[in-house]
Design brief:
The protein is globular. With 335 residues, it is α/β, with parallel strands linked by helices. The chain contains 13 helices and 11 strands.
């Protein structure tokens, strides 16, 4: 097994990551405050939540909040989604003009509202269209283009090797494989054998994604698939420090000491403050609810707290209630 400390740092085109751990783009989650947290806690790169190729929505408040800015830390990577090759090329150009250093193309999202527009993982059913999209996007920008996809549309139509080879031929600089078909959604277990097969059939970097929730699993996925990097999505929700835990384990062969209650409290409070500043109080406190739910779900008897927190209607109440919750946890640990 390669020690991550001895890994060649992953280069995607002319962009070099600080390590081989990537924070996945997640709709409604991977906003700037969350990305910055993941980067602070050891992600070698973070990727924005998907940016719609339809230019009619680019100047809405929602899209403007998804834009990359100079306030983003690390490599500025933007994921775009759509099915029209020319629209996708324009979306890539638009984001590069506004500071994106890497463009990722979404062909993995299983959501019905995306798939019904033949975007996301629905594109896996049309390799010819995939080729056209990739050629147009790669030709439109002078930054690296990557692709995120699944193993296939369903278990009878796994074509990730074919798509990876098309991507490589089109000049795509790396491919991320989520180890499930679209039909699987997020159910079942990830098919690492498909990721391994892709790695054996292309020369561009392959990034493994799916079900990597612990440092031990990360090591096993690296070992089995021989992937060049791994991407963490849902396991980072409520645990953005999972990246430094994985990096420590891969480098030293032992688990990093768990964060103390004081450390977790400070991380959550910092996250909330950044959400309030980024979105404003009205939207910020609503988005804070799901993050606090993730941060606190594994504490014993926390259900009542989360029910209370979900109905609080101003930011100061949220902060006060959260501090009281962590104080209770501390007191229980001392008793």
């Amino acid at each position: 097994m390669r020690n991550i400390a001895r890994f060649n740092l992953l280069s995607i085109g002319d962009v070099t990551l600080k390590n081989n751990l990537i924070a996945a783009p997640m709709a409604g989650v991977s906003d700037r405050p969350f990305r910055n947290l993941c980067y602070r806690f050891g992600a070698g790169m973070t990727v924005s939540e998907m940016f719609l190729a339809n230019s009619d929505v680019w100047h809405t408040d929602k899209s403007s909040l998804r834009m990359i800015s100079s306030d983003d830390v690390g490599i500025r990577a933007v994921q775009i989604v759509g099915s029209d090759p020319d629209e996708m090329a324009r979306a890539a150009e638009f984001n590069v003009k506004h500071g994106a250093q890497l463009i990722d193309i979404n062909m993995g999202c299983p959501a019905k509202k995306v798939n019904k527009k033949l975007a996301g993982s629905a594109l896996m059913q049309n390799p010819a269209l995939i080729k056209t999209i990739l050629q147009k996007v790669v030709g439109a920008v002078d930054v690296p283009v990557t692709l995120k996809t699944r193993t296939g549309w369903d278990k009878n139509h796994r074509n990730c090797i074919e798509i990876a080879q098309i991507a490589q031929d089109c000049g795509v600089k790396a491919i991320t494989i989520h180890g499930r078909t679209r039909a699987c959604l997020f159910n079942g277990v990830a098919e690492y054998e498909s990721i391994k097969a892709v790695k054996e059939n292309v020369t561009i970097p392959v990034i493994a994604n799916g079900d990597i929730c612990t440092p031990e699993q990360a090591k096993e996925v690296f070992k089995y698939t021989q992937a060049d990097a791994i991407m963490i999505g849902r396991a980072a929700q409520g645990r953005p420090w999972i990246f430094e835990e994985i990096a420590f384990y891969l480098a030293h062969g032992q688990l990093k000491k768990n964060k103390s209650i004081d450390e977790v409290e400070q991380i959550v409070l910092t996250h909330l403050e950044e959400l309030y500043q980024f979105y404003g109080e009205y939207k910020g406190l609503r988005i804070a609810r799901k993050h606090v739910n993730w941060y606190t779900k594994n504490y014993a008897d926390s259900d009542q707290f989360r029910r209370l927190f979900s109905v609080l209607s101003n930011t100061s109440e949220q902060v006060t209630t959260l501090k009281a919750f962590f104080s209770q946890i501390r007191n229980k640990q001392k008793s």
